[in-house]
Amino acid sequence: AAKAYQEAIFQQGQPAVMFFTDDVKGDYERIKAKGGAFIKPPTEVTGSTIAQLNDSCGNLVQITQLARW
Questions:
Q1: 52 CB contacts (<8 Å, ≥6 apart)?
Q2: How far is residue 63's CA from residue 53's CA, in Å, rounded to a whole number?
Q3: Cα–Cα distance measured from residue 24 to residue 5, given in angstroms and rounded to the nearest whole number
Q4: More confident residue, 2 or 69
Q5: Tell me: domain 2-66, CATH 3.10.180.10, correct?
Q6: What is the pLDDT of residue 2?
């Protein structure tokens, strides 16, 4: 059941974990330069900018920078 759940949330684009940062674009460039496999580059969404990468174990990791008002 756990494997089916993991695969389903991955296919739906739901991250297994989310980390907050003050520089999502810089982190994206650093991780990508080291071979990180991003499935979503930095993208502005309501109230934040997010990027998602595959952790190579079947999970999505999201990095999030909150918008400053």
A1: 13, 15, 38, 39, 40, 60, 61, 62, 63
A2: 9
A3: 28
A4: 2
A5: yes
A6: 86
Name the average pLDDT for the chain. 94
- Residues contacting 39, CB < 8 A, separation 6+: 13, 52, 53, 54, 60
Closest CA to 31 of 3, 2, 51: 51
Unique residue bearing structure tokens 């999030």 = 64
Query: Are 56 and 13 a contacting pair, CB within 8 Å?
Result: no
- What local confidence, expressed as pLDDT, does residue 19 receive? 97
